[in-house]
Amino acid sequence: GGYKPSFYVQVRLELAYAWITHSNNHISPYLKRKVKSVIVDQNWNEQAYYFLSQTMIFFDIDETYHLVDSAFHAYEKNPEKDTFTLQFVALIAVNFLNCCYHQKGRREYVKRAIDFLRELPIDNALGLSSILGTYYEALFNEDYKMTETIAEILKRSGYLSMIEDTLESNQNNMCK
């Protein structure tokens, strides 16, 4: 239908703001419902994985967990080996860990995402996601020596922006 482009444009605008503010307070219940119905109505495929990886910020952490867990189950039942699908499911895990960090996600949510990342095949295209998983694991375990090491590697490699939004709060723990 003719409504589609404007729906996706609206989603993209709201997304940018939501990820920057780490908040979904400004998202209308209507838009949340509509986005969720798009995710739930799709068979899990590359496109659905990607859409969830981007829009999970719209939901509260418990609701997000159910969507993410359902995506993980779908992947585990039918593991795709193509690089794009792999990258998108890995991105779901990494973005979900970020949401867990900002929304105080439960321990088992974090564990599920990290375990999922660990089960993915070793693929060069997933290297950064895997490292980010290790970073979040260390962060949640309060292993600041490890977070500092990874932050330094990301900084030297030009990827510090990937975790910048987690640095302010643990800077007081960062020993130089």
Strand content: under 5%
**Average pLDDT metric:** 90
Largest sheet: none
How many H/I helices? 9
Number of strands: 0
The radius of gyration is: 16 Å
Structural class estimated from helices and strands: mainly alpha
Shape, please? Answer: globular
In the predicted model, the low-confidence regions spanning at least 5 consecutive residues are 171-176
Distance N to C terminus? 56 Å
- Helix proportion: 55-70%
Written as H for each helix and E for each strand, in order along the chain, the element string is HHHHHHHHH
Name the descriptors.
9 helices; disordered C terminus; globular; mainly alpha; 176 residues
Describe this structure in words.
The chain is globular, with a radius of gyration of 16 Å. Helices cover 70% and strands 0% of the residues. It has 176 residues and is an all-alpha fold. It has helices spanning 4-21, 29-41, 46-55, 61-77, 83-102, 107-119, 127-140, 144-157, 167-170. The longest helix has 20 residues, at 83-102. α5 (83-102) runs parallel beside α7 (127-140), α6 runs antiparallel to α7 (127-140) and α7 (127-140) runs antiparallel to α8 (144-157). It has nine helices and no strands.
